[in-house]
Specification:
single chain, about 210 residues, mainly alpha, about 0% strand, globular, disordered N terminus
């Protein structure tokens, strides 16, 4: 640059990366800090953040941070299902239970942060995790640790027990509706008012959510 002229910013005029909301300033260079949402994050970095913020329920998370983690959980679960199919009982149940418990807390945390990014309260995550927890207890935990508690009913037995069959059907329908609502929240766009959920640094004030 000629002497006396100001060197332009490294980000000046650069296009905003894909997945980054238009209102987000791109003044930072490199990856944002862990207390900020990472828009346009890659798969590997999303998984790293997923475990680095294992039980962090404050702050925000971008759509990529949630959906890459969800894909990772699905892929690992698919591989485990194939691997455990050749193992004797009860090893498959033990392995899948350990895996489910290993990602339960970070999945809940990233879900709450994703809700915050859309300027929603994190309590909306309960519409997914309460039915998910009930299914985990009924399908895995009780049969594994308390087999005498669970009745050994075949599908034919359930067909003749109309009350039990209707109860399971109603629970399945409620779970399906809750899952759809939860996924709509997870797919929602970022909202600048979500910054109100960030943890303020000492001596600073975060903007209030006046919506």
């Amino acid at each position: 640059m000629p002497y006396g002229q100001q060197q332009p910013s490294p980000q000046s005029g650069a296009p905003i990366p894909q997945g980054v909301p238009q209102y987000v300033s791109q003044s930072f260079i490199g990856d944002p800090s862990l207390d900020k949402p990472f828009y346009g994050i890659s798969f590997g970095k999303a998984i790293a953040r997923f475990y680095q913020k294992y039980a962090t329920f404050s702050g925000r998370a971008s759509r990529g941070e949630f959906w890459w983690a969800a894909l990772f959980i699905m892929l690992v679960g698919f591989v485990l299902n194939i691997f455990t199919a050749f193992l004797p009982s009860p090893l498959p149940t033990i392995i899948t239970t350990i895996w489910a418990l290993s990602y339960a807390v970070p999945l809940a945390a990233v879900s709450v942060r994703r809700l915050h990014d859309g300027s929603h309260t994190g309590w909306w995550a309960l519409i997914y995790f309460i039915p998910w927890g009930i299914q985990l207890v009924l399908n895995i935990v009780l049969p594994l640790f308390f087999p005498a508690v669970m009745p050994s009913l075949s599908f034919a037995d359930l067909a003749y027990d109309s009350a039990l069959l209707m109860a399971w059907g109603a629970f399945g329908l409620v779970t399906l509706v809750c899952d759809i609502v939860f996924l709509c929240f997870m797919a929602s766009s970022s909202n600048p008012y979500g910054a109100a959920y960030d943890v303020p640094e000492s001596g600073t004030e975060m903007p209030q959510n006046n919506r």
